[in-house]
Structure formats: C-alpha cells, structure tokens
Amino acid sequence: MLNISDINISYSNKHIFKNAYVKFYNGNIHAVIGASGSGKTTLIKTILTSQSQITYNEEIVMNKEEFILNHVFYVDQNGSYFENMNIFQHFQFYGELKDKKVEKSIIYKYLQKVGIDKVNLKHSPSQLSIGERKRFLIALALFSQKDIIILDEPTASLDYQSIVRLKKVLSELKDKTIILTTHEGELLEICDVIYEIKDYQIVMKEQHLKNESELVNKQNNHFKPLQYLKYKNKFQWLQQMFLIVIGVFLCIQLGVVFNNEYTLYSGLSGNQYLAEDSMIYFRKRQPYAPHEMYVSGEEWNSIPLEDKEKEAIENISGVLSIYNIGQFSVINPNNTTEAKSVKIISNEQEHIIDENIVIAERPVVKPYFPENNMDKDNKKIFISSQFATEQNIQSGDTVELPLHIPTYQYIYNNESQIYRYISYKQIDMKFDIDEAIDVSKNYKSFDTPYIIYIPYQQYEAILNQYNGDSSGSKPRSENVTAMTYSYDDYVIFAERDKIADVYKDLTELNEDYDVFSQSVFYTEGAQEQFAFQESRVMIIGGIGLLSAIVYAVIFYFQLRSKRRERRQLVYNGVNHSYMRKYLSIETFIHGFSWISLSLLTVVVLGTHYLLLNMIIFMITAIILSLMEQAILYYVLRREKNNLC
Known about the structure:
By secondary structure, the protein is α+β, with helices and mostly antiparallel strands.
C-alpha cells in the first residue's frame, strides 16, 4: 500500500491541497478525477518530486529518489520519452539499471503485450503515434519490473480506437499498482478505486478493491553515470563534437598566439645586451649616394672627413674614442663570384672548406678594439662561434684564408653616386685561433656570421704593409685620380649612458652622415615591439574573453536543450547530484579531448615550445571546464527549484 500524507501545496497564495491524504492499494487501478485545474497532475508530481511524507508497505520512504528508481514508472500526458535514445536504447537503459543485458527477443515480447511488436527498434519513439508511444512506455514499465505505474491523462490526444486499446492493456496488467488521472469516463470502467479532488482534499468516490496483494519488489536499481554518457542522438553527438572543436580552436588559438608572444619576448629579452653596445658605426657618404641604414664594409661611397668635421665629432659629449674600421674579405668585392677555398689545419691535418660554402658564407677578418674588452692584452685571435661550430674549428687550429686587402683607390673626378673605385690584392694569410666567441655579443658583420677577429693594431699593420700597391685591378673610366687607399668608415665608442645622445648628435651634424647603433636600433625597436606586444596581449585577451563568452552561451543553450531529458531522469528517480556527476564526467572528457587534440595538432605542425603550449592548453581547458561546471550548477539548481 502507498500512503501519501501531509500534502500541502499552494501557488500564488491559492491553496491546491491543504493537509490532504491519499492511499493507493497494491494491485489495483486507481483513478484521480476532478475539474480542470483542480490539481490532478500536481498530485502526481507530489509522488515524484515533493517533500510530502510517503509510506510504502508500512515503511516510511526516507529516500524519495531511490524509491522512485526502484518502484515507480511515470508516463505523462504527452507520452514523454528520452529524446537521446531510440526504442532499443530505452530498454537497454532500464536493463543497465538492473545490471542486465537486453536481448531483442525480450524487448519484442514486452512490445507484443501492448500490441506494437512490429516497430523498428532503431527508430526514435518520436516516429510512433502518441497512442503507440504511450503503449510503448507501458511496455517499458512492465520491462522495468516496477510495481507502481503512474499515468497522467493517458487518454489525452488519443482517438477512440486508441483509448479502447489502452483500456484493454491496462485491464490486463496484473500485480501492478496503477495510478491515473483522467477526464475520460471510458477508463473509469476498469478502475477499482476512484478519487475526486474537492475542497483541497482527495476524496474517495468509489471503491471496488480486488484482493490487495502485498507487493514486494526487492530489486535494487543503480544509475550509472559513465554508462549513461553513450545515450545521445545524432544531433547531440554533433553538439558534443562542435563543443570539442570550439575548445580545441580556443586552445590552439591561445597557444599559437602566446607562443608567438613568448618568442618575441624571448627574442627581445635575449638581445638585451645589445642595449649596452657602445659602438656607433659612422661614415660620410658621397652626396648623391643613397642613405645606408647599416654602415658595412662597402666603402665605395665613403668619403674622407675634413679635420674640422672629425674634431666636431670628437668634441661631442659622451664620445670616448674614434677608429677607422674595415674588413678583409675572402670574396673579391670587385667580383663577388670569385673565391678560393679556405684551409683549416688541425693537428697537422688539413680540412678544406669548399668554394661554394665560401661564396655562400663570405668569411671576413675584422679588427677588434681595446674598448671591446675581448682580450685585456689585445693579442688573441678569435673566431665566431658559428664559424667554429659548423667547420669544427678548435682552439689552437690554424685557418688559412685568401684575403683581399685594399691597396689602392681611384677617385672619380665627376660627381656621381660612386665616389671611388678600390683596388684589392689577394694575400694568403694564416691565423692561429685562440678562442671561439659568441659573435652576437660583439660587433659583427652584417654580411656574414663567418668572422675572424684580430687585434686592431694587427689589422692596421696588414693594411699599411700592402697600401700603395697599384698592381691590382683598375676602373674602366680614365677620368679618375689614383692615390693610396684610405679607409673612411669609422667606429665611435661612446659612454653607455650617452649612446642615444651621441647617436642623435651625429645624425644632426650633417645629412650626409650614415650612422648606425645596435643599442639605439634595439632600444627603439624593443620599445615599439613591447608596446605592440602589450596591445596584442590586450586584443588577444579581448578575443579570448569574447570566445569564452560565446562558448559559454553555446554550452548553456546546448544544456538547456536537454532539460526534458533531465526531467525524465528525475521522474525515474535519478537525482540532480547523479546528473551533475555524469555531466561532470562529460566535462572531463571535453577537457581531455581539448588538451590531447590540441597537443596532437601542434606536434603534427611542428610548433616550438611544446611544454609552453601544453601549459596553455591545460589552463584553457581548466577555465572552460570551470565555466561548464558553473553553468551546470546554475542550470541544475534552477531546474531542481522549479520541480520542488
């Protein structure tokens, strides 16, 4: 026997039930009748969701959800079903509650009892007529082996023939307590007990009890959140895939962006030493020659400074010293396709650098200065680390190079973009390497990373030794003045805290001056880059926030679209804590999919900073997961309050 007492329900200060009480007898069919709006459906919901006191077979029901899960099957007036399941999966779901595997033959046996054994089990219940659907749900109730079947307005939307079939099915049910609400007098003919809702009470109108059987249902059903996740229709699977794709897109988008930002920041931070480079490269160019940003070894347009110009430069505040500067190249500047091999001698073993590599890398010999602090005695010979690494050159090895030494020059008498023609002489020279050095942290050639550094005094000695030799190549033009070579490119060393001021003063002295400073170039560039990076981070943050909001909205409406499914779970005794559990497992699957698919993508694409990307993916996945959980909590709590 099912007893429900202390039924007190009101809406908008209007009483529906007031201290009402009702009793349903085992194995009998009960009808609840009353005027429209009197509370018939409300009474049914009382059994399923309210806090009224329920006693079943003289035992107080302490756990409402467990009681419904094991004893009650509810069919509403619309014949509601699980929209995420086909007909077979409905039976499978109820079988899993009992830990039983379901065979199709068993399903058809129950469907035969209600006269719809010709249906396709792969079809959705939506493809059944409403009358067939209600009979399908009764078959499902019989299969579930629950002893109480509640039918809210079972004849709603049914034609007469469907009502007759339903009446026949219900009358043949044995050992089931059936509770139904109805307006239909046809169904009252098969009812053993008829209640009428009147004056806030549930009044017994008729009673023709069968022998009341003491139903003992000892089944112990269990809802399994992990198993339930597989029940999705095609549209819901597409929704899940869409959510995963959006999450992966967000992860990869943020990963790539922060990867780029980290690369930029690392590059700027890693080159911080450039801000302290006190060398300023300088030359005066032929007036008609184009401005060169980088002052390099191309000296055809460099013209001599007048004494007063040099004095003005030396008097600039912050200038420490000024030197002539140049370089000796393996490549003939007058014929860049002409080159000879470079020889490496290590432990009396010779290694030849192929001419093609020489042409590609263009090795040079450059002077270093006391202010560079490379060697306190200014005697060692250094080699750039890239040159040493790629050609396996060790300390103590000897490098023999065919260098082109400037020896003579021819000044063009007519004004043009070219000031002079320089004649070179090829001299084979050997240098005993003392040490490899990181070229990036010293001044470097803008043409090549293959550099040998020699002391400035040694560089000057070589230059002076061959200066004046006119046996080299000559220009085609005869309208030239021949003279010994003078090197007219300069390097200025400035006080570190005045580098920018010296650079500015030099550029303002004469518009024909070409000036370049790695310190100024880096500092100005870094400031621009950091400002640009800051704006990028703001934009990226905005895009990320907007994307997260879009994701939250999509997830919310996806969750809302399944509210009828969750209501069915509630009516089957699955409480909201179980629902939150299975939805939380779904969130975990989302997060795992986001991280693993994003990682797989960046591995395939060969993106750098894999660990950084993984951290970003995990943070993004955690944020999205927390967002999902917050939305879940809000939606489920709201649904729970609406049911109560």
